[in-house]
Specification:
Layout: H1 5-22, H2 27-32, H3 36-50, E1 55-56, E2 62-63, H4 72-88, H5 98-104, H6 112-115, H7 128-135
Antiparallel strand pairs: 1-2
């Protein structure tokens, strides 16, 4: 199981960046008065310094804009936790991360993704959902309610 160290470190970096670069300033006003070129440069500088953990489009294609030293997989596991909650609260069988996997690692998709996503935790090659389920032992729970 991941220690989520990247998430902790990234949050710490955001806090430090905010204290150093944004505190006690009229940041939105400063950005608002910039011309288009300078505004784009400033936003690019912010993204370069603090990053964006995951960027997903409508097809669930994913990229990470994290600075060096951060592991996007920790953030994907956080995303998987959110999708697990969606799965548990849903009446549908397919994995809630199926669009994500189809867009990012189609080679790991199999019939369990649509029929029994919890069983993905027992596969040799784990998908993000299966890795999350396995890391918390959720595949060892009897999910069938009599």
């Amino acid at each position: 199981m991941s220690s989520n160290r990247s998430i902790q470190n990234w949050i710490g970096a955001i806090i430090n960046f905010s204290k150093k670069e944004l505190a006690n300033r009229f940041t939105f006003t400063e950005l608002f008065i910039l011309n288009n070129k300078n505004f784009n440069e400033k936003i690019s500088d912010y993204v370069k310094k603090i990053g964006i953990p995951l960027v997903l489009n409508q097809k669930d294609e994913c990229i990470s804009l994290l600075p060096e030293g951060f592991d996007q997989n920790d953030f994907i596991q956080l995303y998987a936790a959110n999708k697990f909650i969606d799965y548990v609260n849903s009446d549908t069988k397919p994995c809630q991360m199926l669009p994500f996997c189809n867009s990012n690692r189609k080679s790991i998709v199999n019939s369990q993704c649509t029929d029994e996503p919890i069983l993905r935790a027992s596969c040799k090659e784990l998908c993000p959902f299966g890795a999350f389920v396995k890391s918390y032992g959720l595949h060892d729970i009897d999910w069938k309610v009599p």
